[in-house]
Amino acid sequence: MANQRYIAMIVLSRHVAISDAEIEITAIRAQGAGGQHVNKSSTAIHLRFDIHASSLPDFYKQRLLAARHHLITPEGVVIIKAQEYRSQEMNREAALKRLENLISELTVVVKSRRPTRPTLASKKRRLESKARKSTTKSLRSRPL
To answer: For residue 61, what is the domain's CATH number?
Structure first.
């Protein structure tokens, strides 16, 4: 019962998906307190995903391998251990969700900022605002 394998499938986008054969999920015994239940059931999930051997596009692989993340080993294997829940099924879903979040987080392309020039109207508004403030402050001073 300690080494059961399960089927999993993650859809990242319309064109990118990870098949169940690429994800290795193993049920193991959870750590920590839990009474009698923890000693006889394998509720924790150990997930392994090899980036090199996966069918992900090269862009995804390069981004994942370049990232210095604590869940990715130097050999390019993602290792996730889920033991938050008392149910094996809920831990399995949590591990898959964490893998999906990790991949989508590390493969986001940050849009670069294109510098723009201020419009003529915004320049006029700025100068008018400065003139108003100047007038207001000059009226606050004591008369001579």
So the answer is: 3.30.160.20
* Total domain count, the chain: 1
Conformation bin of residue 2: beta by default, left when phi > 0, alpha when psi is -120 to 50: alpha
1-52 pLDDT per residue, tens: 455 555 556 777 677 777 777 787 778 777 766 666 666 677 788 888 888 7
Backbone φ and ψ of 80, nearest 5°? -125, 130
Q: Residue 2 burial by CB count (10 A; 0-12/13-18/19+): exposed, middle or buried?
A: exposed
State which residues form the domain around 64: 10-106
Q: What is the pLDDT of residues 45-89, one digit of tens each?
A: 888 888 878 778 888 788 888 888 888 888 888 888 888 887 778
124 found inside a domain: no
Closest CA to 53 of 69, 75, 71: 75
